Structure formats: structure tokens, C-alpha cells
Amino acid sequence: MQKPFVSVKTITYNHEKFIAQCIEGILMQKTNFSFEYIIGEDCSTDNTMKIVQDYADRYPDIIRVISSENNVGWIENDHRTDMACQGKYVAFCEGDDFWTDPYKLQKQVDFLEKNTDYGLVHTNFSCVKDDKITKSIRGNEMLPTGNVLEELIKGNHIATATVCMRNDLLRKICIGDTIKKHNWRMGDYPLWIETSALVKVHYLKDDTITYRIHDDSATHALDWNGDFRFFEDRYQIKNYYIAKYNCEHLLPFISKVYHKELLKYAIFLKNEDLREACSIYFKKKSERSEFAYRLLSDFTIFDSIFCFIYSSRKKLKTIV
């Protein structure tokens, strides 16, 4: 049997409310090449597997299901799904997101075929929360394209479900090994950074997918303590790659952004150690502005202002 030209991969767990829409978005793709669809189903406790298997039975020439008798966790599920992809290119769509452009794959593959120095293409996207859709989050803004390593270390601007990349890069990087070594809670962000260190990355303004925000997701269901652990991971990742790729000149920028965000967690977690870390940083940086430092140091006043402005933690969520 001839290998598919493109592999699409989905990892899913307890997505019974969303997985059918995810699968339909892949099956509607219009391409002049063959593609396969690999679904890593990690022993969901709801009806996700039943829905996935029903689609696999109806589309046996396209869909392959990767599963096991026991739950293996997201890192292993992600890795085994990666290894099952046979195509020259791999595209991603997590089980609670969905594609909306039937020509998404065709556009991305066309670009990668014509531009061999590029290894990854991502696109604009929409968000949906409580059935309210925010269209084309990036608007007409043109995100960094080409050599984007430093921009990605500064912050993740790539939404996973928009990505199509070369499979040889995915296998070469084998990001699961790095994630397990450092015990990070996210795998897509490190993968994009590692990819951008090897090849150019391209951004398309086309809105091709919808990213779903819901209370059952791995990140959006977190309390402040869980959210803080993801925040800390994100900055461990940044610092790891700053050292790995000799980008020490980015440290002042990263430190500034880090402490601004840390202040948020110091207040909401009522953690005096975090407050002290912020106080030391802001005092050092505000030597020429005594008033600004006093305002930042007076947590009684700042708590009230901050909590009034950011009354809901969900307003502070990022894509990462």
C-alpha cells in the first residue's frame, strides 16, 4: 500500500462532546494528495472511544486508531501517535478543537512543497467559548515569518491545531524525550521552539481552525495553583532554550514579563514569597520612580485594584 502524503494526528481523552466535530473537520479536507488520520485515544472514561471507533469503521481507508488497554498519559499518547504518522507532513488537531477551512491542508502543503527551507506552517484561528465565536484572533496582523527562534522564546504565538510540519523534523526532534526529562506539562511550545532552531517557520493569515475554550480542558479547568504550575513551566522552557541556543540577550525581556505575571499569582495565591520576589525585582527596576515602586509595593492597595480589574482568572488565559 502506498504511503499517505500527509498524516493528520489527534490525541484525545474524554472529548465525547467535541470529538465528532474535530473528526468531521479533518474528513472534509479537499486535497490533491492522499492523507491518513491517526487518532490517539487514551482510554477515555466517557463515550469518546465509541465515537472514534464508529468513524474508524466508516472510514477504514483514512482513520487509524491508536489505543491500549490502559491509560498511558498525554506524553506517551502523543509520542505513539507521532510515531504512527507515515506521511511526509504531519498536521495537528487536538480532540476538542476543529478545522473550519476545507483547504487548510492543501494551502499548507503547497507552501511547504515550494519552500524547502521552511519546515512548519501555522495559521490564524478563531476561538469559541460558551457558543460565542471570536473570529480571526490575529486579525490582519502578520506574525513573524522566517527565522523566528527568538520571537518564539519570547512567547508562543502558534496555536497547535493550525500547524502542519515536516515529519522528518518531528521524528528528529522527538520532543517527548525532552518533556519527560524536564517534567514539563506542555509539549507543543517546546516542539515549536526546537523546530524554529532548525528551519524557517511561516505564518498564513488564513483563519483555518477554531480553538475551543471550555472548563473541561486540561488548562482552562485549572485553579490558580494549577495555572501557576503551567506558568512556571512556561518560563522554565524559555530559560532552558535561552541557554541552549545562546540567546542570553533575551533575559532582561523575559525577566520583565515573568515578574509582571508573577505579581498576578502572588496576589491571587496570597503567597508572600512570590510577593517578596516581585518586590525585590520592582524595587531594583524602579529606582528612578519612587512613587511607582511604592504603588507596586503596597499590596493592600494593589490587591484591590488588581482584583477589580481581573475579577475572573479566565480573562488571563493564553493559548500556550
Overview of this protein structure:
The protein is of the alpha/beta class. The protein has 2 domains: 207 residues, Spore Coat Polysaccharide Biosynthesis Protein SpsA, Chain A; 93 residues, no CATH class. It contains 13 helices and 9 strands. Strands 1, 2, 3, 4, 5, 6, 7, 8 and 9 form a 9-stranded mixed sheet that branches. Strand 1, helix 1 and strand 2 form a beta-alpha-beta unit. Helix 3 runs antiparallel to helix 7, helix 9 runs antiparallel to helix 10 and helix 10 packs across helix 11. The two termini are 38 Å apart. The relative contact order is 0.11. The C terminus is likely disordered.
Notable traits:
single chain; 320 residues; alpha/beta; Spore Coat Polysaccharide Biosynthesis Protein SpsA, Chain A; 2 domains; nine-stranded mixed β-sheet; 13 helices
Write the SSE topology.
Elements: E1 6-12, H1 19-27, E2 35-41, H2 48-58, E3 63-66, H3 74-84, E4 89-92, E5 98-99, H4 104-114, E6 118-129, E7 132-134, H5 149-154, E8 164-166, H6 167-173, H7 175-182, H8 188-198, E9 200-212, H9 224-244, H10 251-268, H11 272-285, H12 290-297, H13 299-309
Parallel strand pairs: 1-2, 1-4, 2-3, 6-9
Antiparallel strand pairs: 4-8, 5-9, 6-7, 6-8
Protein name: Glycosyltransferase
Keywords: Glycosyltransferase, Transferase
Pfam family, one: Glycos_transf_2
Spans of 5+ residues with little confidence (pLDDT < 50)?
Answer: 312-320
CATH class of the largest domain: Alpha Beta
Number of strand segments: 9
The best one-word shape is globular
CATH topology of the largest domain: Spore Coat Polysaccharide Biosynthesis Protein SpsA, Chain A
CATH architecture assignment of the largest domain:
Alpha-Beta Complex
